């Protein structure tokens, strides 16, 4: 029934669609119980009978000879409300909602979910206009924070590290010979590789709540570039130094840096966004700097994927962390420059 405390015409339509009376007398009795019988229906004028033809408001369910084009025949749960059973209002007289004529069909969707619920004689497409307004709009697709053509290249520059290749570095060899230095090892060319994998730290704090879709997107992208079996995914709130979650959400473990040389990728704002009433759940710059120093002293470069511009962070953090913002203008060149600068700074430690 209606939640407004009064019975309206929609309640009668819903009751007729759900109970599906098989004769007009039962339908009229239901309308009388709900207080929706018009005076013209209760006391029909002379010359009108009480057969089902005189009361087109209700039609028996089941197949009939009307054909598949009839909405009631095609859908036995349909109820067609007449436009002639309601008395016309006099000029200047208001007509209530329960006395207005309705010229459309109301169909219960419960009997249209499966093909087995279609009545005999039903043809595909019959009554399709009844379901025209029941389509649910699809959710908008996720828009990646980087250009699709550059996303994989940017992520490769993020999680890759320099390793020795099998190719001889002729330039380095000639320099050593010209300086008459002792050759203790054959110099090899350096190349970028993802063989060391990566450690992905996902921030689930209040500040990163608007970027849930980006977090899932980054998780899948890192796994496709570095290899899902070589990526360690940890979740945290505040900073990873307070504890991380590896599998179960109720088990918090102590954070441990990966093997030396493994890149640590942070999906976080590093405490830049401080929502109101967050209290001590949001870490400050000093706490983040202490955590980053622990990671750097273990020999791991730190890369931060952040929704903010790198200029919004302090100079001390920019020297230690390679910031790659969520910006459509970011290119592969910017990502390489940021990560190479952190690697050079790490070698001087």
Topology:
Layout: H1 9-19, H2 24-33, H3 39-42, H4 71-74, E1 79-80, E2 105-106, H5 148-159, E3 161-168, H6 170-178, E4 188-193, E5 198-203, H7 212-226, E6 231-236, E7 264-267, H8 285-297, E8 302-306, H9 315-320, E9 321-325, H10 332-347
Walkthrough of the structure:
- This protein is α/β, with parallel strands linked by helices and 349 residues long.
- The chain is 29% helix and 13% strand.
- It contains 10 helices and 9 strands.
- Strands 6-5-7-8-9 form a 5-stranded parallel sheet, sandwiched between helices.
- Helix 7 links the parallel strand 5 and strand 6.
- Helix 5 crosses helix 7 and helix 5 packs parallel to helix 10.
- The radius of gyration is 36 Å and the shape is elongated.
- The chain starts with 8 loop residues before the first helix and ends with a helix.
- About 21% of the residues have low confidence.
